[in-house]
């Protein structure tokens, strides 16, 4: 679980995060949504320890990040997995090499233990047959699976995903969402996903934090989002005619 309290961050005197408080729960897919420029990336970078907030606290399983020693902060960061936008694989390494990379950098394990772990996570994301392939030889959806395998290979407590669906067709996007949700539940990970994708909101939005101009404008679940009368959320989520109709049908069914 990650607890955020009154988080502030400004750049050159311009506030970007203006007092955000929320909780990201363990074993759940927590989504951060909001318009471009609302502060989602800065918020996620604060959660990753890549940006130091001006004030406020981020507490990981009871440990307040800013109160840890540099060694403890480093250890905590090793408990974080990250799926970057666009997968960010190393083109010159095979699938296996990409997944092995964090283990080679940080794990203190024998070669055969690392090999076993890589085998295991590649099987988990249904890529058992792609070990020796290079990123350019596999589809965008498979590349995302490799990125997920690499993010979980160190057995993280926290998983951060930045726009994990960008560039994927809707069907593959849902498969990737479902995979992230399954893994989150299976390994009881606190997963935080930055997304623009309304399908993800509906499909895996177990907890949604909606940012507007650096403020937490609304939070709730994908079920709550159908019922909310918060205008900013409705305008953002139901900006497409299709989603407006889906919402109308849902509300009519309930009446
Ligand atoms: N390192 C930085 N220095 C100065 N300003 C920054 C920095 N990083 C972000 N900002 C500013 O903070 C604001 C929020 O940016 P952020 O990238 O968090 O938005 P976002 O919600 O993630 O947008 P998008 O959905 O387009 O990725 C923007 O106005 C941006 O210019």
From TrEMBL:
It comes from the Bacteria. Keywords: ATP-binding, Nucleotide-binding, Transport. SUPFAM superfamilies: P-loop containing nucleoside triphosphate hydrolases. Pfam families: ABC_tran. Residues 2-238 form the ABC transporter domain. PROSITE patterns: ABC_TRANSPORTER_1, ABC_TRANSPORTER_2. GO terms for molecular function: ATP binding. Transmembrane segments: none annotated. This is ATP-binding cassette domain-containing protein. It comes from Robiginitalea marina. The lineage of its organism: Bacteria, Pseudomonadati, Bacteroidota, Flavobacteriia, Flavobacteriales.
